[in-house]
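B., you asked whether I could sanity-check this one before it goes into the benchmark set. Here's the sequence:
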Amino acid sequence: MTVTAGSNKRRRRSWLQDWRLYVMLILPISFYLIFCYKPMAGIIIGFQDFNMFKGMWGSQWIGLENFRFTMGMSDFSYALLNTLWLNFLGLICGFPVPIILAIMLNEMRSIAVKKISQTLLYLPHFLSWIIIGGMVLQIFSPSTGLINSTLLRWGWITTGIPFLTDGPHWQATYTLVGVWQGMGWGTILYLSAITGINMELFEAAKIDGANKMQQIWHVTLPGIRSTIVVLLILNVGQMMNISFDRPQILGNPQVRKYCDVLSTFVYRTGITNSQFARATAIGLFQSVVGLILISSANFVSTKLGEEGIW
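And here's what the prediction gave me:
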C-alpha cells in the first residue's frame, strides 16, 4: 500500500509540474484522432457494394468481391509490379546517397561552403512535382531537351535518347529524378546522428594512425548504424506505397505499361469511375502488405542484433 501511495503521489506531482506539456498534446492527439483514426471506419466500404446515397451503413455487404474483381484486372498486375520495381530502384539507388552526402558535408571545413551546399541540396525537396515535371521535360525531351539537343549538336549521337518515351529509359529517368529531389532532405537525420558521435572516438582513431577514410569506416558509419537500420526498415515498409503526382506527371501514354502504378491505377479505375469501394479495397491491400513488409524487416533486423523500431 505504501509503494502504491508513493507512486500515485509521484504521478500527481508529475501532472502538476508538466501540465502545460500535456495541454500541448491535445492538439496533435485531436488531429490524429479526427483525421487518421476516425476515417479508418471507412475501410468497410471495401467489403460493400457501396452506394453513396445509402452510405456505408446502408450499402449491401459483398465480402471480398471487390478484392477479387480489382486483382483480377489485367492492369492491376502491371500496376503492382511497377510499384514494387520503381520503389525497389528508388531504395537501391536513393538510400545510400543521403548517407554519403551527410558524411561529405560533415567533413567540410569551410562553414560558408557547407551552408551553401546544404541549401542547394535541400532546395529540390521544396519544389512542386509540377515544376520538376516541367524541368524534366525541358532537359530530357527526346527532340527538344537540353541533353539531346547538345549531344546532337556536338555529333555524339545521331538520334535522340528516349529518356521519356522508352520504358527502361523512363524508369531510369524517374529513379534518378527522385533521388535528386529527395537526397538533400534525407541528409538531415544522418547529419544529426553524426553530430551525436563522441568526438573522442575520432581523436583516438587519429592517435592510432587511422586516415580519414578509416575514420569514416570504423567510427562514423558504426556511429550512425542504428539510424541507418531504422530508416531502412521504414523504407522497406513503404515498398507498396507510391505517390500519385510523381508518376502521373512524369508518365505519358507511350510508357503506360511502365509508369502505371497502384496510385494511378486507383485514380483511373476507382476515383474517375466513382468506384470508391474498389479503390478502398486496393488501399487496404496496400496497407496490409506494407504492414507485413515493415514487420518482416523489423524482425530480421532484431534477429541480426540491430535495434528495430519496436
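One thing to flag: The CA atoms of residues 99 and 190 lie 6 Å apart. Otherwise nothing jumped out at me.
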